[in-house]
Amino acid sequence: xxxxARLFIALLLVCIMTIGAAAAEITVGIVNNPPSESGYRxxxxxxxxxxxxxxxxxTAKTFYSLKNDEQLSAAQQFITDGVDYLxxxxxxxxxxxxxxxxxxxxxxxxxxxxxxIDCDESLYAAAVVSDMANQGKLAVEWLIAQNxxxxxxxxxxxxxxxxxxxxxxxxxxxxxxxNDNWTIVVQQTATWDEAEAKKIxxxxxxxxxxxxxxxxxxxxxxxxAVAALDDAGITHGVNGKVIVxxxxxxxxxxxxxxAGTWNYDGQCSPFQAQVISDMIKILEEGxxxxxxxxxxxxxxxxxxxxxxxxxxxxxxxx
Amino acid sequence: xxxxxxxSMRGIGKNFPGVRALHNVDFTLRAGEIHALMGENGAxxxxxxxVLTGVYGKDAGTISIEGKEVFIRSxxxxxxxxxxxxxxxxxxxxxxxxxxxxxxxRDKNVLVGWGKRYRRAGEILRNLNIPxxxxxxxxxxSLAVQQMVAIARAVDMDCKVLILDEPTSSLDDKEVEMLFxxxxxxxxxxxxxxxxxxxxxxxxxxSDRITVLRNGELVGxxxxxxxxxxxxxxxxxxxxxxxxxxLKQDDNEAAFTGTPVYEVAHLTSTTGxxxxxxxxxxxxxxxxxxxxxxxxxxxxxxxxxADRVSGGTVQVEGKKARISNPKQAMKxxxxxxxxxxxxxxxxxxxxxxxxxxxALQVMKGFFHPLSQKEQDAFVDEYIRALDIKTxxxxxxxxxxxxxxxxxxxxxxxxxxxxxxLILDEPTRGIDVGTKTEIQRLVRRLAKDGMSVTFISxxxxxxxxxxxxxxxxxxxxxxxxxxxxxxSQDNVMRTIAGGEQ
Amino acid sequence: xxxxxxxxKWSKYTQLLKTKWSKYTQLLKTKWSKYTQLLKTKWSKYAQLLKAKGRKHAQxxxxxxxxxxxxxxxxxxxxxxxxxxxxxxxxxxxxxxxxLISILNGASELAVISMGMTLVTAACGGQDISVGALGTIAAxxxxxxxxxxxxxxGTIVLAFLACCAAAMVFGAFNGTLVSVFKIQPxxxxxxxxxxxxSVAYWINGGATPTIESPLINAVGxxxxxxxVPTPILIVIAVGLLxxxxxxxxxxxxxxxxxxxxxxxxxxxxxxxxxxxxxSFLVLGLCCAxxxxxxxxxxxxxxxxxxxQEIEMDAILAVAIGGNALGGGKFRITGSVxxxxxxxxxxxxxxxxxxxxxxxxxxxxxxxxIIVVISSPVVKQAISRLWAKVKENSQKKKEVAA
Lengths: 318, 500, 401
What we know:
The structure holds three protein chains of three kinds.
Chain A: H1 2-24, E1 26-32, H2 39-51, E2 58-64, H3 68-81, E3 85-88, H4 97-105, E4 110-114, E5 126-129, H5 132-145, E6 151-157, H6 163-178, E7 182-189, H7 194-206, E8 213-216, H8 219-232, E9 243-247, H9 251-259, E10 264-266, H10 273-284, E11 293-295, E12 300-302, H11 308-314
Parallel strand pairs in A: 1-2, 1-3, 3-4, 4-5, 5-11, 6-7, 6-8, 8-9, 9-10
Antiparallel strand pairs in A: 10-12
Helix pairs in contact in A: 5-6, 7-8, 9-11
Chain B: E1 5-16, E2 19-30, E3 34-38, H1 45-52, E4 60-65, E5 68-70, H2 75-80, E6 83-86, H3 98-103, H4 114-127, H5 143-156, E7 161-165, H6 173-188, E8 192-196, H7 200-206, E9 209-214, E10 217-223, H8 229-237, H9 254-257, E11 260-269, E12 276-281, E13 285-289, H10 296-304, E14 309-316, E15 319-321, H11 326-331, E16 334-337, H12 341-345, H13 352-364, H14 372-385, H15 402-415, E17 420-424, H16 432-447, E18 451-455, H17 459-465, E19 468-473, E20 476-482, H18 488-496
Parallel strand pairs in B: 3-8, 3-9, 6-7, 7-8, 13-18, 13-19, 16-17, 17-18
Antiparallel strand pairs in B: 1-2, 1-4, 4-5, 9-10, 11-12, 11-14, 14-15, 19-20
Chain C: H1 2-57, H2 61-77, E1 84-88, E2 94-98, H3 99-106, H4 108-124, H5 131-148, H6 153-179, H7 185-204, H8 214-220, H9 230-248, H10 251-260, H11 262-267, H12 272-298, H13 310-320, H14 332-351, H15 356-373, H16 376-400
Antiparallel strand pairs in C: 1-2
Helix pairs in contact in C: 2-14, 3-14, 4-9, 4-10, 4-12, 4-13, 4-14, 5-6, 5-7, 5-12, 6-7, 6-12, 8-12, 10-12, 13-14
């Protein structure tokens, strides 16, 4: 019996000590998409890992999934575990109200990053996001600046319903609806799959329809589309027949832009961790956050103006 | 009362594309009788049963029950008309309880509580003297009891006509006797029973009348007393029998003088058989006999390496050998025709050709497939030699009759030219004609120098073919009979534990 | 007198002529009947042979019919769908283009994987749902090795061999779970299905690593000077290899035997565990080939989207090919035709600008139709109908007679 009692006390001590140790750090629960999703996501995950490290006084619990329901249950688990802050990049924009409400009840501030969620503003402390619509707008503005007499577009969309797809499609759809010399030859989703993008473009080429612009909503799909052009002997890029537009600024994609085989690549900044960390520091010191919505500054790269320095600074991956 | 006609089928005809399965067949069943329906494979027994139970529609003729004509278009119609069938393969659910099996799928009143049903099931089982408890899982009962539960289910559905299709083929003698008692009980309650079987003795043990079919036509209806066994066989085969009794005139010397082909000491396997010694000489035909479950099949399976061998030393042709799986046995020149044709023998979807060449192919090896030409030559030879009735060599084996399937398996092993062939129940569930054919074949093979171990549930058959019998009981060898000692009486006595 | 004599002569001649004539006609008649007889017997022999052959190939009816259906549909919709042209690509090589080429080329990965899937289905009576993940792992190994060194023909071969080895290791993992531990194939392969893409990511690290070289281009698109897309050539090569494997070994017979009756197979000296394992190894190799094709097409690997949902298409191809999903008899040709049928359907829908999200719905419809057509109920109904038609025609003949 005595032995047991001693053991019990020892265990108790250990528990108290760990709790004490944990209290010294700030625990954050990070719900994100898996790094393997894209070059963008890889950089995004690395950014958060670097900022929310133990050197910076954080204990980070992370969960990565492409599926909204898995993300939801992971977030709920983090709330039950009693994290201090919850950081979310949602797979889908809907379905989060209950989880966010439960976080509020438990007094856990929520930060949204990278992607917005459809919910009441009061349910989160702040959102640090890329403005996907703005990315689309930048690309479309660049297209307008090219001053073509006719815009015949193959539009390859990402996974339907994702924030990036909605934002990047919106600007183009609007422009096409308002201008008669802008037509969509085909609008198909390839669900971020490069091979599928190639098949879609191939099918347009086979049907002998004329087009002069490929607007692909990420770099991989743009690469797939270009492969189809190459096979069919259709020139592309600067001085080519077809203008190629991609998004995300993978380093290899920017190299294509520099080489002039692509025309434009829209940036999508993955670096939001520092901004959030700064806000958490403010909250920890008892302050309040003034701006609820912080939009990452992003730009687009044009084959005519891009430099190797841009690639080194903004390129994702290797 | 006993002579009241229950079921009357008149002028039944049924055609399949290219085949006249039934032609102008009459069949009469009286209340309170057990009526054996006999015929060789292909005689039309099962077609007649299927017409009666609504599985097939008939092309001609009328069916009436208790004088009223009925139209049976589906198995449901048959059930409503009071016709129930218990098949050879038990079609119940082994993972449900006995009572659940008795009531499931036929009770429209879902509100009746299961308590009530269990009580009712208990009553029925008691009335019929069936040794099963309602709450027992069916799979835990012996095959015989499962069979009886299936009968009880049928009886409880107010059946007037009960069809038993080969009910005894997987039962041992004691269980068969139990089943017969149940059948006699039902007979005295006025149920008409149609009994389909291959076992002649059983027909005589329990039936009142016999109807014989041949080639889809009626041969006749007979009172059992007026039809001696030999005549029945003759009527089924359509010719006078010859040599069924004198198969073994040339008592084989080889059994006692030849060189040992296969010898084993203290062989045992994980199936729980006692270690046993056994040997067979060149050209000898011997057999393992005993009741079902006595370990006779397990013994030969151990010889072939079909089960996990756990002990014993084996000598093949005087040399020490290791046989721990079928392939090693095959390489040593041993062939094994398994007891359960469907589960262990045939490859149902494959053609007759592939089924025949399989074992030889395995022996030739993975990288030496037989050419089409070789296959054709082998297959044609054995189809002719064993008189296998098949549309072509490319017909799937599953569409052959049981007897012909068995011949295919036999051909498979003969093709490997084994020195020692083990036949476990080669004649089960096949017609009389093929039975004698196989028995003759065994004797001929032995004469040509092959050693054969032969197992059959029919003792007479073994006495006819084997020159030495190893008798087993409770998974151990209890005696050996040879020469003049070979008789049914002696076998019984040895099994029972008496003197040899 | 003279006249009379001439008359006699005349009658003699006519007589002679008549007899000769009748002899000739007789001879002709007998000869004729002989010939017709011969023709008849020959014809019936041929007919019999044709029937037997037909029964043997009946399995291919469903995939051929589906392809035919799609072809006819396209013919009515737009005959130019079938046009195939030779043009120059951006590297100035002559290449074939057109929807037919797109179909054959695009279905390559699916065709190769469905060949292996057919074997696994036949031997194990279940399907491997990890083929997409397994192919991605293999491709990841392929890309990893090529990124670590110079890309030459030698390193490509080396990388391919290494990726085959990796795929066989994972195939053996699946196969062991199925054959030794007797876990249902779908459940056993669920493990790799769930974690395979993470493994692939872990091998390479980067999200979308690229490999760029004209040699990779030659593997994934066109060999300079050869207008046929290389993936099509690879499919042919794999098909020939597998065909040789089935022809010069007894794998086919053993696989079917194990798939139909495992206990009987064992009693005939076949080791079912080994055969099942072998089928998974072959499938692993097929996945490796598919992964290499897929990675070489764009010189890029995206672990999340590569060979996405190919497992379902492969199972569908096996089913369309008329193979029983419960194991047993199989025809690899059927599955390959099934794969092309699926791709033809997809390309047709693309050509019609059906949104690719809806393509799945159309595929589902096709699945339903095929499954219903090949169900025993419909088959019986058709055979009954056929019998009736035959009977009627016979009756008509009798009436006419």
